[in-house]
Amino acid sequence: MADGVRYIKIAKIDANGINQTNTLQSLEKLIVPFSTGAIEYEILSITEKPTFFLYYVKPENVIWEDRANIEYSFSSSYSDAQPSIFLGTPQLTSTLDNQTFFLEGGPTSGGLGGGNAPIDTYRIRTYPQKDLNVRVSSSVAFEIFARDATTSVTASVRIVSSPLIIGENPGFGNTPNPTVLATALISQSTQDLSSGGETFIFTGSYDLSATLPAASITPGDCIYFQILPQVDNDDAFVGCSILPSSFTNGFFNISSSTAVNSPVGIIAEPYFGTNDFKRALDCQPLLNNAERVRRHNLYMDVDYSAGSTEPVNFDLIIDRNATRAEVQFSNYTTRRHVIPRYEGSKSTSQNLNTWTKGDTGTYGKLSTVDSLDTNIYEFEWGGGTTPEIYGWGSFKLGNILQVGSKDAVKTINPSDGLKTILVNSKTQQNYTTTRNYRVIIAEDNITTLYPPQTVATGSIDDNYFWITPQNVSDYYYSLNTNNPINHKVSLNLYPNPTIAANPSIPDTTKILTTDFGVPSKSTFALTSSLSGSNVLGVNNYGFIRDGNPNIYLYRQQKMSVVTTDDNGFYQSGLYPRTPQWQSFGNQINKDLNNGERWFVTLYNEFEFPNGQGDYNQALSSSLELLPYNTGYSGSNVNGNYKDPLAYKGVYEIIGVQDTYSNYVYILTNREFKEKRNIGGNGAPNTPLSPLNGLGEITGPSLGMLIWKAKDVGKNKFIIVQDEITGGVGAGAFISRNTTQEIKDNLDHITKTYGTNTN
Fold first, then answer.
1. Which entry of 130, 339, 500, 696 is 20 to 30 Å from 226 by CA?
2. What is the dotted CATH code of the domain comprising 73-256?
């Protein structure tokens, strides 16, 4: 793992037996060598233990087990490119510095010296484990300045170790207790400068080496060298300057010696090595007596000790300097913690009670999540939904039997606890579009009224924006929560010896909706065989176009209001109506704004039936009646239709807009996938202006029904995705995922507590 070191332990007694407490208790940073290079750790807190110091550090991204021996390797060169006042040591140019310990002189850079006396130094910032070898070498030439006679001039070079004191000049009497490691004589001479103000040209070479014992090094010590001119009369001495380019092959090198003693006890935690902390008697991991929990590098403690409203360490939290929380980072990284808590407990299910390809966390192909329904849903009768929803059926609902056991059943009546609430209605279109299609004409037949906006567009969703009524009760929640679209149920008819018809229902079926029922007849019908022109010169009702959800109707072309004959069959020719505001748009939009729902059903060919009411034949072609579902005919891997209503050619009306020119637009909830005429008996038609650019529309004509859903939101009907025919009387349906007790005792329960009387 590469989450980094959290704690570092350093023993108080080093490998040489020296107590380093004074140094260790005031450290700000620690540098630890690794195979990829030295890592500098910022110390966040220090805890003193009897035998060691424990440092809580800011983690760096490095492997925990990785470590390397400390090596010191520094090389620099120096030369004098131009005349300068010589102040003790020349300017160094670092060529190798593996620990980045080189500091340029001057107070702004952190090196020794200040003002006119900057000293380039090598500053030790580690806890030393090895002796250091120091070597300095060059030839040099400089001038000595004197006011008065002097008889002896000596030049020497020395290697110095000194604590770091910013601003002090160790070359001119302000040396902060330096330790001179070695001194070498450059040269010595006698010169008579009796006239005063004269100079003495001084030349020489040197090659000086020294060894600095590890025991004598304290973190923060600086190593540098000095070239010192001395005269026998200090009062006569003025100074010196290095002659241009007088340093030849100058170098200053520092390197590690081979370690003799055992390593110092520096332990980076967690440590998986051989060190058993024998000297750390108060923290023996093998004895399980650690005194503190590891702290997290990210999470911080929030201190509410002074009150429950605002933490006392608020500023520290904002600055990210608060005490880290005692939450182990390994809880979220190590597999033995992560797998049982997170990875191992995850399961994915696309559906309840069934296994679907892509589910995870299952035993083979068993369902990931099971949900058993404990309700029996009674119905009073059933019948077909053709032609509004072709080939499917619906049931008029009765009571719900809520089963605790076969002898503990609660009956939920549709009227029990019934109340009406206001809910945010929704559509598939955005707020602006839908609102523009919901305009109605006021009683003066002039003023246009928009539906009120009750929820801001962006506060919830573009699909929610005005309030409509909804009946709710225990019955409502039990019915709708347990019977979503495509949910499978089992159908059961109660025995009825007096019924004359021969009912036909499937054993199992899928739910289409519990929101509404289908009316006994549609409101408007537009047959595919319409021919003959109206005042606009067109011989069809209108058209649909690809990539558009609108149905375009010519506002002057009359369509049939559906009526029924004495046998209850649809008939045409009575009460024709044009689709304008007063006769069409107002009626639909008022209902929509009040929470009602309207639909259109499109057929590839549609005519009124003959006197027998047979919708299985389209009279114009004697072909089977086929819903228009281009683009919505497929199903998914579970056998469910992408959109069951659109599969049956049923599209919900979002609103109606009258252009007051050529067209009335019916906005639906789905885009159409091709251009088709509505009516016209298959003859080519070209749309009127302003849609002439659409071009001629050819192909078989569509027919259409427009109908209003029955009892929206009143929990009275359920529509299923199978055909229901004949005289279907009372019965009940149960979820395919109901309890075994209900399956085994359905007859007993419905006869004892329900309406099953035979």
1. 130
2. 2.60.120
